[in-house]
Write a structure and sequence with these properties.
alpha+beta, 6-stranded mixed beta sheet, 44% helix, 677 residues, globular, Chloramphenicol Acetyltransferase
Length: 677
């Protein structure tokens, strides 16, 4: 009850932002004062009093008058809030500042924009969702602009004949079916909060029928430089406790929203389903189920699944109390029931009570019986670390949950997600106030037919898991300002395959409400020219430098355009969805969507919260995370700028393809990294 009231109060506070709740009292006092001296706000107060049958007094004042003043004050208060909110939204629609080069003179327009925005964005301390109603809608780009950017992106990838055909199809689409589809998407952009997000979630993620383990989920690695303890149960307890404290911050909206330059807020909607959420399988499409609260977590260990309560009489257990529960699970000798050990490979249900215990859990913890290692001189240990987090046996994680916290036997941790309090002996600090509730081993009654399905899913998933090759490479970053990974990746890919490939890089559109991602097509005319110059022994260093600068400038411009809704792929995707609804055939859209992304890249961000200061604690850096390649003959490359002088690259590829090799890719990167950085 207390948490429900607190959530309601915080929702109201966020809903009236930028005005504080106390401003209503001031508005009411001013309204009463003005009414007392004869200012009647167009006669509203007198009119409302005439409607009231009340003839009572409160503190010597007519109750009907007080009620009428409160109604008028509330109306004025709401009008002022809406005025400032829409004023803030209007200011946030301006994106010209993104395209201004750092270090150059700021334009007069941007200076005036900053002068207006800064006081509005910082009237009061914002809560996590305070800016949601003020964020602008994702703008719909023009059909002509999208087609022009698309043609420019594929020109270096196609022969002259292929490009001529693509251009012809694009022109036919622009003059014909494209206009009709654009009108439908335009209508959706006006009546929906975000014209992309719900279709992207449904058709790209929820309707996918391939296994999540290697086709959707990603992994993240622990901080490497400073192991905090080697006691598995203690590390699990501290991470569980920390995750639940973070959930409390989200529930109370006490986490600060991410702000660019302390002025421009990013959308916080994706926090809403971080906890208490699971993906429930369906025949044609899965569904996301989110619960308001959960007082337990699910723990997987050696094929067994346990329900673990983390609250007692409304109080979150202390780390030292939580530690006792995973330790009891580790000491529990009971074997898994028939089919239970491989049940997560199926991630579907038979026993409703047990399945509900997992699906309704705040999150899932895996107590791994293997150890994770890191050695800066031996990348194969980190490669294995990454493999264990993303795939491993295929039945040691519940892949439908929002995230799985994986705790290794030697207390290293990691995450698998669907897209410190220690004593000297390593145990959690503090003394338990009581013996916490026993972990409950979930019971399953699995008929032979279900066990057969589990075995089928298990045998399919390990084959997919073993087919992936991983390399996690650590590089020293010589130039803190150098962010040249797209050019580097394209160069290495050209080395590996002998041709340029369509390259995916994830950008964000979170400056808009419910914004998610947009694609940056990193393989550009300029980047290809640079790569060819690097392969040409007659090219001079000055020529190569100029081409590199041109490639980076083009990449930055493409990234900026994607951030403000001027990308290519999300727009074309929505046009394709409408064409399917209308049962309209488009040779152009078929050609676009059939082009494979042989190089998929992404950056793992950090430093987005004040809760962790890497400048004060440089040894707390993480190696980031990674994902699988998008195509069978491609690469998946993720990277993280970890501190001031280290970059980690995560490279994945399919072992079944003789054209790709993660180790060769990493080895080929060395000369390019040396030149660029």
């Amino acid at each position: 009850m207390f948490f429900a009231v607190a959530r309601f109060k915080n929702s109201v506070r966020a809903g009236v932002y930028p005005a504080p709740l106390s401003s209503w009292v001031l508005t009411f006092a001013v309204t009463c004062g003005l009414s007392a001296v004869g200012v009647d706000f167009f006669g509203f107060i007198h009119f409302l009093m005439s409607l009231s049958p009340l003839n009572l007094h409160l503190f010597g004042l007519p109750l009907a008058w007080l009620v009428s003043c409160s109604i008028v004050a509330t109306l004025w208060w709401i009008c002022v809030i809406l005025f400032f909110r829409y004023g803030l939204k209007l200011l946030l629609m301006y994106k010209g500042w993104i395209f201004e080069v750092r270090g150059t003179k700021t334009s007069l327009t941007t200076k005036l924009w900053m002068m207006c925005l800064r006081p509005l964005a910082n009237v009061t301390k914002p809560m996590l969702y305070s800016y949601q109603q003020s964020l602008p809608r994702l703008p719909l780009p023009s059909l002509e602009g999208t087609l022009e950017r698309f043609l420019r992106s594929v020109k270096p990838l196609e022969t002259a004949e292929e490009f001529a055909e693509t251009t012809r199809l694009a022109e036919e689409f622009r003059l014909g079916l494209g206009k009709k589809l654009q009108r439908y998407v335009w209508l959706k952009s006006w009546w929906s909060t975000n014209y992309v997000s719900n279709w992207w979630e449904e058709y790209v993620y929820l309707r996918g029928r391939s296994p999540l383990m290697v086709n959707s989920n990603f992994y993240c690695i622990d901080m490497l430089m400073e192991p905090l303890t080697n006691v598995q149960a203690a590390r699990a307890a501290s991470m569980i406790y920390g995750a639940l404290l973070f959930r409390r911050l989200l529930d109370r909206q006490e986490l600060e929203p991410i702000m660019i330059y302390s002025m421009v807020p990013l959308c916080s909607s994706q926090y809403e389903r971080l906890f208490n959420t699971t993906r429930v399988p369906g025949v044609e499409s899965d569904t996301i189920v989110h619960r308001a609260d959960a007082d337990h977590i699910a723990v997987l260990h050696k094929g067994r699944i346990f329900k673990v309560l983390v609250y007692h009489r409304g109080r979150l257990l202390k780390p030292c109390e939580i530690e006792m529960q995973p330790q009891k699970i580790l000491d529990n000798p009971v074997d898994p029931a028939d089919g239970e050990a491989k049940l997560p490979a199926l991630t579907a249900g038979v026993n409703r009570i047990s399945l509900n215990a997992v699906e309704s859990a705040a999150f899932v913890v895996t107590l791994d019986d293997k150890e994770f290692y890191y050695d800066p001189k031996d990348h194969t240990k980190l490669d294995k670390y990454a493999h264990q987090l993303l795939t491993e046996s295929g039945c040691d994680k519940w892949f439908d949950k929002t995230f799985n916290l994986v705790v290794a036997k030697n207390a290293r941790i990691g995450f698998n997600a669907e897209h410190s309090w220690y004593k000297e002996d390593g145990h959690c600090d503090g003394e338990p106030a009581f013996d916490p509730p026993e972990p409950v081993k979930l019971k399953w009654q699995l008929p032979p037919e279900c066990i057969g399905n589990i075995e089928f899913s298990y045998k399919r998933d390990p084959s997919a898991a073993s087919s992936l090759g991983y390399v996690v490479q650590q590089q020293q970053r010589r130039d803190p300002e150098a962010d040249r990974h797209p050019v580097c990746c394209i160069a290495v890919n050209w080395d590996s395959t002998g041709k340029f490939s369509l390259t995916y890089e994830a950008s964000m559109t979170r400056m808009y409400r419910e914004g998610r991602t947009e694609t940056v097509r990193s393989c550009s005319i300029e980047s290809c020219a640079f790569v060819l110059a690097m392969k040409n022994p007659e090219s001079t260093p000055s020529e190569r430098y100029k081409l590199l600068k041109d490639a980076c400038d083009r990449h930055q411009l493409s990234y900026q355009a994607a951030m403000v809704g001027e990308g290519v792929d999300r727009h074309l995707f929505c046009l394709y969805v409408v064409s399917r609804y209308l049962d309209a055939d488009s040779p152009f859209l078929k050609r676009v969507l059939s082009q494979p992304w042989r190089l998929s890249t992404s950056q793992t961000p950090h430093g987005q919260t004040s809760k962790l200061d890497l400048r004060k604690n440089p040894h707390w850096i993480s190696a980031g995370g990674g994902f699988r390649p998008v195509t069978d003959d491609g690469y998946g490359v993720s990277y993280i700028v970890a501190g001031e002088d280290v970059i980690f690259f995560h490279i994945s590829s399919k072992r079944s393809c003789n054209l790709t090799d993660s180790t060769r890719f990493a080895d080929s990167a060395q000369p390019h990294l040396g030149y660029i950085w």
